[in-house]
Amino acid sequence: MYLIGEFHDEGALIAAIRGLRANGVEPASIDLFSEEPVELPRGVLDRPSRLSLVSVSGAILFGVFATLFIWWAQRNYRLDTGGMPVFSFWATGVITFEMTMFGAILAAFGWFLWESGLIRARDPGAPVPTVDPGSICLRVHCREDDVHEVSDSMRRAGAVHIGRGAS
Amino acid sequence: MLTATRLPYSKIREDLFRPLSRVSGRYVVATVIAFIVGALGLVAWGFQLRRGMGVTGLQRPVFWGFYIVDFVFWIGISHAGTLISAILRLTDAAWRKPVTRAAEAITVFALMIGGMFPIIHLGRAWLFYWLLPYPNSRLLWPNFRSPLLWDLTAIVTYMTGSVIYLYLPLIPDMAQLAEHNTPWRRRLYRALSLGWTGSDREWRALERAMKLMACIILAVAVSVHTVVAWDFAMALAPMWHSTIFGPYFVAGAIFSGIAALIVAMAIIRRVLGLELYLARGHFDRLGKLLLLMSLLWFYFTMAENLTVWYGNEPKEMAVFGSRTRAHYAPYFWTMVVLNWAIPFVLLGIRRLRTIRNATIASVCVLIGMWIERFVIVVPSLANPRLPAASGFYAPTWIELAITAATFAAMAMLYMIFAKLFPIIAVWEFKPHPQEDD
C-alpha cells in the first residue's frame, strides 16, 4: 500500500520524514517527488552513493586494460622505433590517461542510470504522483495496518493533502 | 530592471518552452541557407574524394593547410561549452544557469565538426578505420606513439563525456516536455527521458553525476587541446617544438570558446526572444572573462615570439620573419589587432562593455583565432629546415567550400537543437530564494 502526502513547505516535509523515521519507516520505503532537487539536512533521508567508487573503479579498469593492450600489441607487433624502447610509458601515457578518463566517464554514466533507478525494473503498482509547481509529494510504502499511523504522522507535520495509491 | 529571477516559475517554463513550438519564416530561411552551404561543402568533399588530394592547395612542403587549421579551430571552439560550464558548475556560480546548455551544445557540435577534419585530411577517407586498434592483414597495429592516435583517443573521450554532460541535465526538461506535446515529440522526449519521475533518488543521482562529470571533463578538456598542441610540438619543425604549446593552445581554446559562446548567446536572445534570460549581466561577466583570456593569449604570444627572436636561431628566425615581416605578416598583425587590441578597448572600458560591443569583440576574436591557427600551421611548414624546400600555400575552392560548410553546419545543427530542446535548462533556472543572480 502506498500513501502520498503533498507538502507546500520544506520544513513540514522534513518534519514528516523525521516523524515517519521515528515510527520505524525505512528510508527505502520513502520517496519524494518534486520539479526540482530538494535539499534535505544531513540525516533526514540520506541516500548513500557509490558513484565515486564505481567511477574510480571504471577508470582503473580501463587505464590498466589500455596499458596492457598497448604493451601486448607493441611487444607482439614490433614497429621500427629507431633505437628507442619498443614500449615506453612516456610515449603511451597520453592514451593511458585518455582511456582512464573514458572508463571513469562510462562507469559514472552507467552507475547514474542504475542508482537513479532509470534502468531498473520498477514496481508497476507504485503510483507516481503528478507534482504541481511549488509542491513536493512524499510517497510512503507501508503495510495496510500502518496506514492510519503514517497518515496521521504526515498530517501532523503539515501535509496539505494525503491520498492512497494501489500497491 | 526586470530580470528572469523575479518571474514566476510557470512563466519561466512557458517562455523557455515556447521557442520549441514555433517555427518562423526567418528560421526556415536561415536553416535552408545553412543547408545549401553545407551541401556545397559535401559536393566539394565528394569532388576531392573522386579526384584525390591534388585538387587542394596542399603541396610540398605545406601538407597541412586549411583542414588542419579548421581542425584546431573547431576543437578550440569546443572548449566553449563543457569546460566553461564545468568551471561555473563546480564554483556554484548562480549566473551560469542560462548559459550552460547553450555552451554545452556548442561543444558537442564543434567536436563533431572538428573530428571530421582528420578524416577529410586523410584523402582516402574510406581507410579511416586504419586508425583503430585491430590486427590487419599486414599484422600492423596502430602506432600508439603517434600524436595522431593520441588525438583520436582524446577526441573520442571528450566527445563521449560532452554528449553525456549535455544529456544528463536535459533529462528532467525532456520529462516535462513529454507531458504536453505533439505525438512524435512526446515519443522522442519519453524515450530520451528514460521514464524520469522527479523522485529524490533521481535528483540526487543526477546532481552527483553532474558534479563528478564536471570534474572529469575539466581534466579531459585540458588534455584534449594539449594533445592537439602536441601534434605540432612533438615535431622538430621551427617554431613548433615549444614547451609552452600545450598551455598556449589550451588558453587559446578557452579564449575562442568564450567568444563563440557570447556570439551564440547574442543570436539566441534575439532570435528566440530570450532577452530577459540572457541579460546584460551575463554578457558583462563573460566579457570580463573574454578580456582576461585575451590578455593571457597576448602574454603567451609574446612569450612564444620573444624567446624565438632572442634566440636568433636561423631556421626559427626564417619562420619568425615570414610571420611578422614578410608573406604572412598581414595575417599576423591582423590577428594581434583582432585578438588583443579590439577586445582590450571594447571590453576593458566599462562604459563600452555593452552586449553589442561584447558580441563585436567576440566575432573579432573568432576571426582572429582562426587566423592564429593559420599563422601557427602554415609558415612553419612553408619554411622547413631544408632550405631548398621552402614554399607557399594557397587554398583552392575545395578547401574554402569545406571550411564555409563547417560554419554552416554549426549554425544548422545549433538551430535544429534549439528547436528540439530548450536552449536554457528550465529546471536549473528555477530561482532559489537564497540565490541572487
Largest interface: A-B, 50 and 48 residues
Q: Give the termini distance of chain A in whole angstroms.
A: 4 Å
Integer average pLDDT of chain A: 89
Structural class of chain A: alpha+beta
* Residue windows where pLDDT falls under 50 for at least 5 positions of chain B: 433-437
Percent in helix of chain B: 55-70%
Element-by-element helix/strand order of chain A:
EHEHHEHE
Helix tally of chain A equals 4
Radius of gyration of chain A: 25 Å
- Radius of gyration of chain B, in Å, reads 23 Å
Number of distinct beta strands of chain A: 4
Strand order of the largest sheet of chain A: 2-3-1-4
Distance between the termini of chain B: 13 Å
Characterization of this structure:
The complex is a heterodimer of chains A (167) and B (437). Chain A has four helices and four strands. By secondary structure, chain A is of the alpha+beta class. Chain A is rod-shaped. Chain B is 70% helix and 0% strand. Chain B starts with 8 loop residues before the first helix and ends in an 8-residue tail after the last helix. The C terminus of chain B is likely disordered. Chains A and B meet through strand 2, helix 2 and helix 3 of A and helix 6 and helix 9 of B.
